[in-house]
Amino acid sequence: MAASQKIFSAICFCFFLLALCTSAYEVSHDGRAITIDGARRVLISGSIHYPRSTPGMWPDLIKKAKEGGLDMIETYVFWNAHEPSRREYDFSDNLDFIRFLKTIQDEGLYAFLRIGPYICGEWNYGGLPVWLHNMPGIELRTANSVFMNEMQNFTTKIVDLVKNEKLFASQGGPIILAQIENEYGNIMTSYGDAGKAYIDWCANMAESFQIGVPWVMCQQSDAPQPMINTCNGFYCDSFTPNNPNSPKIWTENWTGWFKSWGDKDPHRTAEDVAFAVARFFQNGGTLQNYYMYHGGTNFGRTAGGPYITTSYDYDAPLDEYGNLNQPKWGHLKQLHAVLKSMEMTLTRGNVSTIDFNNSVSATIYATNESSSCFLGNANSSTDATINFQGNQYMVPAWSVTILPDCKNEGYNTAKVNTQTSVMVKTANIADKNDGATLSWSWRPEILKDTIFQRKRYVSAHQLIDQKAATNDTSDYLWYITSFFFLINSVDIKEDDPIWSHDMSLKVNGSGQIIHAYINGKYTGSEWAKYGVSNSVFEQKVQLNPGRNQIALLSVTVGLANYGPMFDMIQTGIPGPVQLVVQKGDETIIKDLSAYKWTYKVGLNGLEDKFYDLDSLQVWKWQAQQFPINRNFTWYKATFKAPLGTDPIVLDLQGMGKGFAWVNGFNIGRYWPTYIANEDGCDVEVCDYRGSYDSSKCLTNCGQATQRWYHVPRSLIKDDENTLVLFEEFGGNPSLVNFQTITIGSACGNAFESNNTLELSCNQRPISSIKFASFGTPQGTCGSFQKGSCESTNDALSILQNACVGKNTCTIEVSEETFGAVDCGGVPKRLAVEAVC
Ligand code: GAL
Questions:
Q1: Cα 48 to middle of ligand 1, angstroms
Q2: Whose CA is nearest to atom 4 of ligand 1?
Q3: Cβ of 744: how many Cβ atoms within 10 Å?
Q4: SS3 of 215, please?
Q5: Which of 108, 177, 672, 815 is buried deepest, with most CB atoms within 10 A?
Q6: Would the CB of 339 count as within 6 Å of ligand 1?
Q7: What pLDDT band is residue 12 in, cutting at 50, 70 and 90?
Q8: 699-721 burial, b if ≥16 CB within 10 A, otherwise e?
């Protein structure tokens, strides 16, 4: 080829590539499927929320999602994070959602953008900025012009940013689906006619953007056309959209559940998630999205409430730190592969069903060329043996068998052939003293300046809702009575009927935390249990005869994010605030609610950024013996970067409640002294059969709700790093340490049926095999035992030869590998425990 020809071809190729990258593609749908550029699709999607991880984590998370068989990543857009003050925007660092979308695009995946901008999501105030609440004349999430104007402004901003970067499919970008509002149908009736008017307005506004891809409204059974109404829940197989021409979409398949302070750890089994997905596709589904695929972390003050924890792990297929949550990730990956292999028949075939009674049914998708079948057994306890198209099949209770060719079993949701990974934590050996102890300096939070009002603050003759006073810029709000002005102070003479040495202070709070100070002296704290919306603080107080000063510090732990009018739920101290005394039969009450209260938002250390590396004011931190169990105390330590690449966690055992910063980044609220309920973990083996709900399969009873806090590696510097803790209740930092999380052992418990078992210690070699048996082994990972039936060949040495010293090994689970054995019709399995 001549040089000029070569150049010409190269130029053509570049243009071709450019065209490929930027050419628009058409996303359409009908009652059957979503069609992308003419191809009918079965789509598997997963939620990964960009602010719940860091940009450093995004490529790895998205890559693992792709490897797990996902076509698409879903994210909400987080209004209150992007517009913290009206018309002041933040799209930096982990709020750079454009970069996140481009990372999805770089991996060749589609994106689903759920703009909301109300999002729920266990996110503070459901994603709505609290300043909205404080706008005159506003009512949130209803036909109110002030709200609609703000919502339109933000939504337009987001759509414009996306359009400018050409990220919609109609522009050649990855976004094939968008969402407006979120589950409004669940609460719409509380808003009366205005609710319906609002949802119509939402639909019109969304349409007016002309983004060229379909819009969905989840849980909106009356979604105005052309909005597609979609389903959220643990199961959505029996859902049908309100328009027969809409495809059946499952926007939230909850892979586990979220956690509140005081809750146990939720788990939803791999078998049950797979069962729900398989049934959805058995019953005509076209797109399903795992909520969450990676839950991540509620950094800073982003956790919703009240009382949502910092961890948002969700028992998702990728754990909080980004590790594969095995067997869930792998079991679903296999399911995706099987479903994808049937895409043609599922989206084009004629559908017929056979009912075998007792919740057992077969569904056949047949085209002229081929057919695919599902055998579903939704009975929660009875296995079924059925004769289907001349063959006999045993379908275990609560499972779906997929026959990609209507003959051979390609997958059964109850037969998990993926390893269970047991994760372990390792001490940070980079630190001189093995990471066991850090050397601390400390400084107190000085409260006196605030209490005695050295500065001027806002005041009112009433108790103000915390949101109204703070715009939610802080968890902390002081309510302080006047001291210097006689007329407004709590002035109680000895001849006052209430005067007594036995007086109590009684404060009606809104179900979160209150600390009380009388005349500058700490008198006590009260924290309400999760789920209580009213709480009463009552303590005996010693007042001085004459003038006194009462200072109450109210603390919120995440604002409500769900429910009709959740935005109106009171926060702070609604009152009354009273002095109460019992004299004989008589209760004497002095109501202080209408006294002059002065308000001060936040704490001084937060205002002065004690956590910020640039304003640490080293000389103000005391290096000598640090106090323990002292409330309102700041602690600071330096630490070395933990070696390796494994995710890092901060162990805050011993601490009370507060915030932790690593190199100035707020890794979230901590509260290890909040112990998860004692009861409800009594079931040793969690039964996947039967409908899942969040009270099933719980662990961590009686332990700290959250002891470990994720410190993304991208926050860590090679040399020295700084940890700052703000302790509110009092704690002991001596035990605080950094650890890394890695896989400790890999267990397999795979059924024979043309299956291979893959064992992997991720990037590390398998060091030994602790247990192996082929036949009818018993027990679960960590406590396997041989059963009554076992193969002739020594499974242990076969596994040792195949696996020890390797990062990954693959074993065929069959009699060919392990020798013939007759277990009297009981399905044979291989159980292995490999040590990493
Ligand atoms: C749904 C909501 C999600 C999330 C989920 C529970 O109702 O749409 O945002 O809150 O519940 O995790």
A1: 13
A2: 121
A3: 15
A4: strand
A5: 177
A6: no
A7: very low
A8: ebeebbbbbbbbbbbebbeeeeb
The pair of three-digit structure tokens given for residue 315, joined into one six-digit string: 């028992």
Of all protein residues, the one whose alpha carbon is nearest to atom 11 of ligand 1 is: 121
Q: What pLDDT digit, counting tens, does each position of 703-741 carry?
A: 999 999 999 999 999 989 999 999 999 999 999 999 999
SS3 693: coil
Give residue 821 CA to ligand 1 midpoint distance, Å. 49
Q: What is the mean pLDDT of residues 486-496?
A: 86
Is there a contact between 186 and 119 (Cβ–Cβ < 8 Å)?
A: no
Does ligand 1 have an atom closer than 6 angstroms to the CB of 578? no
Helix, strand, coil % in the chain, rounded to nearest 5? 20, 35, 45
Q: Is the CB of residue 47 below 6 angstroms from any atom belonging to ligand 1?
A: no
Q: Which two tokens stand for residue 207?
A: 């349409």
Residue pLDDT, tens place only, 554-577 = 999 999 999 999 999 999 999 999
Supply the residue whose CA is at minimum distance from atom 6 of ligand 1.
121
pTM over 0.90: yes
Q: Nearest-CA neighbor of 230 among 274, 32, 243?
A: 243
Q: Are 560 and 566 in contact (CB under 8 A)?
A: yes
CA of 183 to the centre of ligand 1 (A): 8
Q: How far apart are CA 761 and CA 835, in angstroms?
A: 8
Q: What is the 121 CA–ligand 1 centroid distance (Å)?
A: 5
Q: Look at residues 605, 667, 598 and name the one whose alpha carbon lies nearest to residue 632.
A: 605
Residue 787 phi, psi (nearest 5): -95, -170
Sorted by sequence, the CB contacts under 8 Å of residue 326 that are 6+ apart come out as 418, 419, 420, 421, 746
DSSP letter for 155, please. H
**Residue range 527-559, pLDDT digits in tens:** 998 888 889 999 999 999 999 999 999 999 999
Query: If you compute the radius of gyration of the chain from its CA atoms, what whole number of angstroms results?
Result: 30
Burial class (CB in 10 A: 0-12, 13-18, 19+), 740: buried
- DSSP annotation string for 497-545: TT--TT-EEEEEE-SSEEEEEETTEEEEEEEPPTT-S-EEEEEE--PPS
185 lines ligand 1 (CB under 6 A): no
pLDDT computed for residue 112 by the predictor: 98
Catalytic positions, written as ranges:
183, 252
- Ligand 1 pocket, 258 CB below 6 A? yes
* Residue-wise pLDDT tens digits, 446-455: 998 888 876 6
**Atom 9, ligand 1: which residue's CA is nearest?**
121
Q: Give me the DSSP letters along 654-680.
A: T--SEEEEETTEEEEEE-TTSBPPSSS
Relative to the CA of 186, which ligand 1 atom is closest? 7
Residues 6+ apart with CB under 8 A from 618: none
Q: Pick the residue with more confidence: 514 or 753?
A: 514
pLDDT digits (tens, 9 = 90+) for 619-647: 889 988 999 999 999 999 999 999 999 99
Ligand 1 centroid to 704 CA: how many Å?
25
Ligand 1 atom closest to the CA of 304, numbered from 1: 10
Q: What average pLDDT does the structure give for the chain?
A: 94
* pLDDT tens-digit series, residues 307-362: 999 999 999 999 999 999 999 999 999 999 999 999 999 999 999 999 999 999 99
